[in-house]
Specification:
Layout: H1 16-35, E1 47-48, E2 58-63, E3 69-71, E4 74-76, H2 78-89, E5 96-100, H3 107-120, E6 123-126, E7 129-130
Parallel strand pairs: 1-7, 2-5, 5-6
Antiparallel strand pairs: 2-3, 3-4
């Protein structure tokens, strides 16, 4: 007596197109990540007719309308701003510190931040937006 074996169906996943999709996703995220702005804190900057762009690595101090202070993206109290800024700069006194402050804050708020740079002999730059 001849016994036939049942040929079982084995589920298969087509992997050929999956590698193409993964390649396109990787390419998409690489392009998008280069276009992303590292300064997540949104604010309206003061306007200036002439701007100079910096290509060097720099530390960013951001002040919001509610007078909340950030070093890069980390929130910090004003009383701790100088200590943390000096710790982040370390021995590299040539590093530039970019101050991003809204146009409608008082001048005294800007002077308070810039005073830290004068006291510690640091290079501070005020971020502005291009006047149109």
């Amino acid at each position: 007596m001849a016994i036939k074996r049942n040929r079982r169906f084995h589920a298969e996943i087509a992997k050929d197109s999956m590698s193409d999709i993964m390649f396109f996703l990787l390419l998409f995220f690489l392009i998008i990540s280069t276009l992303a702005n590292p300064n997540v804190i949104k604010m309206t900057l003061p306007k200036a007719k002439n701007n100079e762009k910096t290509n060097k690595q720099h530390i960013t101090i951001s002040v919001t309308d509610e007078k909340k202070y950030y070093i890069d993206k980390a929130p910090i109290e004003f009383s701790e701003l100088e200590k943390n800024l000096l710790a982040q700069i370390g021995d590299d006194k040539e590093q530039t510190v970019v101050v991003r402050i809204p146009f409608n804050l008082q001048v005294q708020d800007l002077v308070d931040v810039l005073e830290i740079g004068v006291k510690n002999n640091l290079k501070f730059v005020i971020a502005t937006d291009v006047a149109k």
